[in-house]
Backbone:
C-alpha cells in the first residue's frame, strides 16, 4: 500500500522507474488496486466497452464519466486518481476546462485527453488552471471510427516524426506523463529516451517507463474480447462461471 498520497509531480519524478498503472471504474476495484500499491489509477473511458456494453469509447458521456469517477473516488486512494475526458468533451479550450473541472469535482485528481499538438491550446489552459494533465499518443480510441479500426502507429517515418514532435510538445506544455498506446516498440523506446516525463505504454513494447492495462483484460473478467498484446494473469470469468454453477446446483 502506498505510504503517502501520490501526486502528479511524484509520478513525473518516477521517470526511468517501472510505473504500474491500471484502470478502475468503481469503488471496490479502486480500493483493491490501492491496497496493492498501484500508484496511478485511471478511470478510463474504456468503461464504455467493458462496463456499459458500448461498441467503442465514443459513446461515453460526461455524466457517465462523472458517475464512475465518484464511485472510484469513494475509495479515497493514496494512488493518483486520473480520469479520461470523454469523446468531444475538449474540442474547445472552454469545454476542456469546464469538463475537466467537472471530473475534478467528482473526485479525479488529474485528467487525460487524446492527441498532441492539435490539442495544445486546451492542454495549456488546463495546466494554467492547475489541473494535472496526462497525455495520450499513438492509437487514439476516440478516433477509431475515423481511422477504421485500431492500428499500430509509428511504422512509417512520417508517423514516427509526428509522434516525437507531439510527445515533445506535450512535455513542454506541462504534461506529467504520456500514455503511448499501440506505438511501434522501437518508436516507443525512442520517445521514452527523448522526453523528460514518464511514458506509460499499452501494447507499445517493454521500453516505456511504465505500463497500463485495462484491469478486466489483466484479470480475464471480460472474456468476450482480449487485446492481442495482453496476457491475462487470471481466468476469472471461468472461475466465476464455475462458482455460480456450483451454487445453482446446490439449490
Residues:
Amino acid at each position: 500500500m502506498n505510504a503517502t498520497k501520490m501526486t502528479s509531480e511524484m509520478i513525473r519524478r518516477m521517470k526511468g522507474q517501472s510505473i504500474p498503472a491500471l484502470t478502475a471504474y468503481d469503488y471496490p476495484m479502486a480500493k483493491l488496486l490501492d491496497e496493492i500499491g498501484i500508484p496511478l489509477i485511471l478511470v478510463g473511458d474504456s468503461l464504455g466497452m467493458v462496463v456499459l456494453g458500448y461498441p467503442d469509447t465514443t459513446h461515453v458521456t460526461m455524466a457517465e464519466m462523472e458517475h464512475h469517477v465518484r464511485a472510484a473516488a469513494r475509495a479515497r486512494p493514496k494512488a493518483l486518481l486520473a480520469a479520461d475526458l470523454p469523446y468531444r468533451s475538449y474540442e474547445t479550450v472552454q469545454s476542456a476546462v469546464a469538463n475537466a473541472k467537472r471530473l475534478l469535482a467528482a473526485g479525479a485528481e488529474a485528467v487525460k485527453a487524446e492527441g498532441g499538438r492539435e490539442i495544445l491550446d486546451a492542454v495549456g489552459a488546463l495546466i494554467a488552471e492547475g489541473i494535472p494533465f496526462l497525455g495520450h499518443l499513438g492509437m487514439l480510441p476516440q478516433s477509431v471510427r475515423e481511422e477504421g479500426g485500431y492500428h499500430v502507429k509509428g511504422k512509417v517515418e512520417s508517423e514516427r516524426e509526428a509522434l516525437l514532435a507531439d510527445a515533445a510538445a506535450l512535455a513542454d506544455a506541462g504534461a506529467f506523463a504520456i500514455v503511448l498506446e499501440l506505438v511501434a516498440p522501437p518508436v516507443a523506446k525512442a520517445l521514452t529516451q527523448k522526453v523528460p516525463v514518464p511514458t506509460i505504454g499499452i501494447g507499445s513494447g517493454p521500453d516505456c517507463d511504465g505500463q497500463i492495462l485495462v484491469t478486466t483484460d489483466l484479470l480475464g473478467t471480460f472474456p468476450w474480447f482480449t487485446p492481442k498484446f495482453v496476457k491475462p494473469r487470471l481466468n476469472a470469468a471461468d472461475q466465476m462461471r464455475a462458482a455460480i454453477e456450483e451454487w445453482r446446483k446446490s439449490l
